Amino acid sequence: MKGLKFEREKFLQWVNHTLKSYRVSTIDEFRVCFEFNDGSKSHVDGWIDFAISKGVKRLKLDFTAAESYKRTRCYMFPNERFTSEKTCIKSLTSLTLKYIRLTGELLEHFLSNCPLLERLHVDHSEDLVNLKIYCSSLKLKYLHIIRCLKFKSIEINAPNLESFGYVGKLIRLHVHSAPRLLDVRIGGMHSLHIMHLALFRATFIS
């Protein structure tokens, strides 16, 4: 156990050193994929700040446990960094979040303040309950909500949305407007089924 802790700390410090020595002004993609624990939070906070400061286009944060039998610890997203009215991540086009605690309000803030965001994938978020997507100028094309156990409802008004996926418990789903939506995937906790768009409309849109 001590050896594993030492190796983890060594890895964290190595990443910090690497990022400090990175001199390029912009980056296209930044991925963080490792087994998170509470001692890693300040490091991850700094890595996210780094990615945003470099105008990242594609950001992926995946804290899935290395072994399936382990309970994955969820990273608490630093809301205070991204809920300011001054926050606008103009470069972000794709955001993938796995095992991260964040609210619908924060996701809505991202959608409102990331004008180029086209892909949003949220997987196993403990705090996500409700989500409202309303923006006539929204570029969002791909939206997947996967196994967020407390999730209850979503409202969608997204003129450019082409693909929507949901895996989880029964929820309230209201699509007000999504004229380009062609790919719809809805499944239970242990499955993922493709539903024809006509069936989707007949079921969920009055």
UniProtKB/TrEMBL annotation:
The organism's place on the tree of life at top rank: Eukaryota
Span of domain At1g61320/AtMIF1 LRR: 83-184
Entry-linked InterPro entries: At1g61320/At1g61330-like (IPR053772), LRR_At1g61320_AtMIF1 (IPR055357), LRR_dom_sf (IPR032675)
Protein name from the UniProt record: At1g61320/AtMIF1 LRR domain-containing protein
Species: Lithocarpus litseifolius
Source organism phylogeny: Eukaryota, Viridiplantae, Streptophyta, Embryophyta, Tracheophyta
